[in-house]
C-alpha cells in the first residue's frame, strides 16, 4: 500500500471512528493551519537558530584568536568540542519527560535561560579547563531543546504535514552557520573593547541574546491545540480530531492529558524501529558536527584570511537551507520519507568523494565548491530522519520518549564527529572526510532496510479488513496498542 493509499484507508475508517466534531470548508481549514504555522514556526525557528549559534560559535572563536589566547593544542580543542555532546546526549531523554510534565511554555524558556547564561560566561574563561567545564554545562542546558521542539510539532500537525514544519525550523539551524559567520565577522571588530579580545565578545553577546529571548518566549509559546488561546473551541476540537483520526484514537484523551506510565517508556526502548533510526541519524550527526566546527578552518587553510573565511561560510549554509526546505516540501507532498533521506545521504557522500580527490593547494575553488554538496546532503537529511520516527511512533508518550532516544543517542555521533578532523591532517583531513563518507553509506543502507521492513508490515495489515479488526479488538485496546495497532500504517 502506498502512502496515499494509507490516507485513503484511514479516511474509510472515519465513519467507524466518528466524524469531525465541527465541519469546516477546505478554505477555512487552510486558514486554521496558516494561523498555527504563524504562531509556531517563526518562534521555533528563531530559538533553534539561537541554539545552533551558541553551540557552533566556538569554531568562529577558534580562528578569531581563542586557540592562541587559551594556549590550546589541536587535541585539546577537539576534547572541548566533544565534552558538549556527552551531557547533551545523556540529558535529552530526562528533559523530554520533564517537558511533558512542566509543558513547553515553561520548560523551553527555562533551559534557554540556563544555556544563555553559560554562553555568556564562556566569554571570560581563562584556560583549557575552564573551556571544557563551560562546554559541559552548555551541553546539559541545551540538551532538551531539539527533541522538545520536534515533539511539540507532532502535537499540532498530522504526519504528512510534519516534515516541512521541521524543515522550516531546522533550516534556521542551517542558516545559523551563515549568520554565525556574518555575526562573528562583525563582532571581531570589537577586539580590545573593554579590554576583551574579539572572540570573547562572540560568546558574551550571543549569550546575552539567548537570555533576552528566553525571557520573552513564554509570552509567545503555546503548549498544544487544547490550550491554544488563538483558536476557538470549535477549531481546537477540529485540530485535535485531525490528529486522533490519523492514529485511530478518536475519543481518546488529548495528548496533554495522557498520564505517564512506565510501559510507554519500555515500549519506546524496546522498539527496533527506534534503534535502526539511530543508525540512520548517525549518518547526519557524525559528519555534520565535524563539518560545522571545521568548515571555517578548512576555508581558512585554503589560503583565505580569517575574516574572509567567516564570510565564505555564508553561501554554503544558504544552499543547505534551500536544500532542506525543498526536500521537506517534496517529502510531505508525496507522503514519503525514505527517498528524501537516502537521496541526500548519497549526494553528501559524493561531496566527500570529490573533496578527497581534489588536491587542496592546487584547486582551492573546487574544494570550496565541494563543501556546498556536502552541506546540502547533510542538512537535508536530518528533518526526514526525525519526521520519519515521529510519524511511525504512537501514542503520545511513546513518541515523546522514542524521539528523545533517537535524538539523544543519535547526537552522541557528535562526539565522534568532533574528533575525526585532526589538526595534524590539515588540509587533507583524510580521517574526517573518509569516516564521514563511510557512515553516510552505512546509514543509507540501514534506511533502505528499514523501509523494506515497514513496507512488509503494512502489507500484512492491509490483508485485514476494518470489520475484521473491530471484531477482534475494542476501541480502547486499539488505542493502547499505539503503532502496533492493525489500523496504523507506517510511513515509508
From TrEMBL:
<protein>
    <submittedName>
        <fullName>MFS nicotinic acid transporter Tna1</fullName>
    </submittedName>
</protein>
<feature type="transmembrane region" description="Helical">
    <location>
        <begin position="199"/>
        <end position="221"/>
    </location>
</feature>
<dbReference type="InterPro" id="IPR020846">
    <property type="entry name" value="MFS_dom"/>
</dbReference>
<feature type="transmembrane region" description="Helical">
    <location>
        <begin position="274"/>
        <end position="299"/>
    </location>
</feature>
<feature type="transmembrane region" description="Helical">
    <location>
        <begin position="36"/>
        <end position="53"/>
    </location>
</feature>
<dbReference type="InterPro" id="IPR011701">
    <property type="entry name" value="MFS"/>
</dbReference>
<feature type="transmembrane region" description="Helical">
    <location>
        <begin position="168"/>
        <end position="187"/>
    </location>
</feature>
<dbReference type="InterPro" id="IPR036259">
    <property type="entry name" value="MFS_trans_sf"/>
</dbReference>
<dbReference type="Pfam" id="PF07690">
    <property type="entry name" value="MFS_1"/>
</dbReference>
<keyword id="KW-0472">Membrane</keyword>
<feature type="transmembrane region" description="Helical">
    <location>
        <begin position="311"/>
        <end position="330"/>
    </location>
</feature>
<feature type="domain" description="Major facilitator superfamily (MFS) profile">
    <location>
        <begin position="40"/>
        <end position="461"/>
    </location>
</feature>
<keyword id="KW-0812">Transmembrane</keyword>
<feature type="transmembrane region" description="Helical">
    <location>
        <begin position="106"/>
        <end position="126"/>
    </location>
</feature>
<feature type="transmembrane region" description="Helical">
    <location>
        <begin position="79"/>
        <end position="99"/>
    </location>
</feature>
<feature type="transmembrane region" description="Helical">
    <location>
        <begin position="401"/>
        <end position="421"/>
    </location>
</feature>
<feature type="transmembrane region" description="Helical">
    <location>
        <begin position="433"/>
        <end position="454"/>
    </location>
</feature>
<feature type="transmembrane region" description="Helical">
    <location>
        <begin position="365"/>
        <end position="389"/>
    </location>
</feature>
<feature type="transmembrane region" description="Helical">
    <location>
        <begin position="342"/>
        <end position="359"/>
    </location>
</feature>
<feature type="transmembrane region" description="Helical">
    <location>
        <begin position="132"/>
        <end position="156"/>
    </location>
</feature>
<dbReference type="GO" id="GO:0016020">
    <property type="term" value="C:membrane"/>
</dbReference>
<dbReference type="GO" id="GO:0022857">
    <property type="term" value="F:transmembrane transporter activity"/>
</dbReference>
<keyword id="KW-1133">Transmembrane helix</keyword>
<keyword id="KW-0813">Transport</keyword>
